[in-house]
Amino acid sequence: MEIDKLEAMIEAILFTMGEAVDLNRIALAIGHDEETTKKVIHNMMDHYEEENRGIQIIELEGAFQLCTKTSMYEVLTKIAHIPKKHTLTDVLLETLSIIAYKQPITKIEIEKIRGVKSDHAVNKLIEYNLVCEVGRLDAPGKPIVFGTTEEFLRSFGVQSIEELPVINADKVEDFKLEAEKEVQLQLEI
Amino acid sequence: MEIDKLEAMIEAILFTMGEAVDLNRIALAIGHDEETTKKVIHNMMDHYEEENRGIQIIELEGAFQLCTKTSMYEVLTKIAHIPKKHTLTDVLLETLSIIAYKQPITKIEIEKIRGVKSDHAVNKLIEYNLVCEVGRLDAPGKPIVFGTTEEFLRSFGVQSIEELPVINADKVEDFKLEAEKEVQLQLEI
Amino acid sequence: MGIPVKLEVFEGPLDLLLHLIDKNKVNIYDIPIVLITEQYLEYVKNMQTKDLNIMSEFLVMAATLIKIKSKMLLPKEDKEDEEKEDPRQELVDRLLEYKMYKFISEELKDKQQDAAKVMFKNPSIPDEIRDYKEEINIEELLGDITLSKLHRIFESVIKKQADKIDPIRSKFGQIEKEEINLSDKMSYIEEFAKKNHTFGFRKLLEEQCSKMDLIVTFLGILELMKTGIIQILQENLFEDILITYDANASVS
């Protein structure tokens, strides 16, 4: 069946390329429009869910990549060399979460939220390829604005920045209330 | 089912290792004897035969490896030939202009002018063959200095970098230029 | 009171304030400003850092706290107004925002730990197509970028940098305005040495006035000596350094 062939092609492509491949490239290679291609890939993702599969397809902002399932981690530690990831300090994580949620954001804005100079943290995040410059703000001084990278999505297991846990005004309020409750709880003890 | 889990593990192992993996290593990792492991793998090989799979397991003198099916060759050639979309972002253009006008220039100097880490931009420009290493600075650490390529000159239709439009000093207030020179001076020593 | 406590290190003033609020188990919406300010100042007083940048950030917050404190101590002139504006409000907002990001960063940390458990695979392009190297079409890449556009971009970069430079400090730069470049200086010395063969360091310096000139000239001499183009000799301490040109050693 036609669909089967397409799935096979896509599997071969993702396996061979190793890295994240843009949807439009896959579509061009298999000779179908992006819409169809996306449907086929999403369908494949369901197949990969099955218990006898050790690999999965992940989606990263319109690109797709093959990787192992997290449940396979233990067996892999027994045989494969597991590359060491950068451990992010609290300072870096804090700066990164501000950038992730507020992107595109200038360094000044980051510093305003953190209350401290953040050059070092921003540069480190750039070095780790988790953050990059995305352009300049059309404002006096044309400051650089920063955003997160594809590597960020991969490292934190999110498909797109929209998929980050939502923190709209309501949620913030919830969080504030929660924090308040927590405080009161502590007071009662 | 137990067999399913073993299959998943083996798939994850072969995927991660990339190369041929000896049967005894696989057996050790999944915690079963070689006989059973081999049976499971042979069983898997049958599954991979199905039409919707683009990859297969091949056996090489007691070792196993995941690779694409030969029938996938055509689509792989296609994907490899579909160029990625390259664009000169503002970040790249800005970095390019600095290198063009300040060459030979070190990465540190570029970063000092731009105020942010610029490895990524410099690397991309090198990849696009607009910029190249032109030597090393005779200074502590012997830093690499960068300049524009012949390709750059050709693309912009000039014979040499002396032909680049001259910086109009009137546009920038005089003392500010001097101040900028001072920074330059400090960098050069 | 008075028990020596090892000072914790805080990332910044907001971090410290959150810690104090937490420690005193007080409501973030109703910060007892007198108490917190007191403890904050106590901490800052004992801060070990000699980094002025860090210190100044803590001091700015100290000033903010004192300002809030004094505003709260002032008699309430207009009750209506007072109800609307709590002098602490802005600080509370900042603290809450900061706290929220701290909270999020913990979430991200968990996500990262999970995501780190997946393995990727290196590209394995079959041999038959491995040789293929993707061509970059420069013309397409450059699009409508012209030389003059590139030029404008550079000018704006320079302008931005100039804007950043403190105008008072930059005026000092006018004392030594010409650019001195080590390699230029080296060629100058080499020319001078070719002409004069043997000469004193002081003579070489006659035409050069600035301190920067002197330093770069000296560096140039050291460099040329290293390559063997010149030899130098100083009979006694503080005596003029005698420079001799070695024609044989000159590299093409």
From TrEMBL, chains A, B:
InterPro entries: ScpB_csome_segregation (IPR005234), WH-like_DNA-bd_sf (IPR036388), WH_DNA-bd_sf (IPR036390)
Pfam families, sorted: SMC_ScpB
One GO term describing the cellular component: cytoplasm
Keywords: Cell cycle, Cell division, Chromosome partition, Cytoplasm
Entry keyword Repeat: no
Stated family: Belongs to the ScpB family.
HAMAP family listed in its UniProt record: ScpB
Quaternary structure and partners: Homodimer. Homodimerization may be required to stabilize the binding of ScpA to the Smc head domains. Component of a cohesin-like complex composed of ScpA, ScpB and the Smc homodimer, in which ScpA and ScpB bind to the head domain of Smc. The presence of the three proteins is required for the association of the complex with DNA.
UniProt-recorded name of the protein: Segregation and condensation protein B
Taxonomic source organism: Anaeromicropila herbilytica
Gene label: scpB
From TrEMBL, chain C:
Major location category of this protein: cytoplasm
Biological processes, Gene Ontology terms: cell division; chromosome segregation; DNA replication
Annotated localization: Cytoplasm
GO cellular component: cytoplasm
Keywords, sorted A to Z: Cell cycle, Cell division, Chromosome partition, Cytoplasm
Highest taxon in the source lineage: Bacteria
Entry-linked InterPro entries: ScpA, ScpA-like_C
Keyword Heme listed: no
Matches recorded under Pfam families: SMC_ScpA
Similarity remark: Belongs to the ScpA family.
Its biological purpose: Participates in chromosomal partition during cell division. May act via the formation of a condensin-like complex containing Smc and ScpB that pull DNA away from mid-cell into both cell halves.
HAMAP family (UniProt xref): ScpA
Subunit organization: Component of a cohesin-like complex composed of ScpA, ScpB and the Smc homodimer, in which ScpA and ScpB bind to the head domain of Smc. The presence of the three proteins is required for the association of the complex with DNA.
Protein name according to UniProt: Segregation and condensation protein A
Organism the protein comes from: Anaeromicropila herbilytica
Gene: scpA
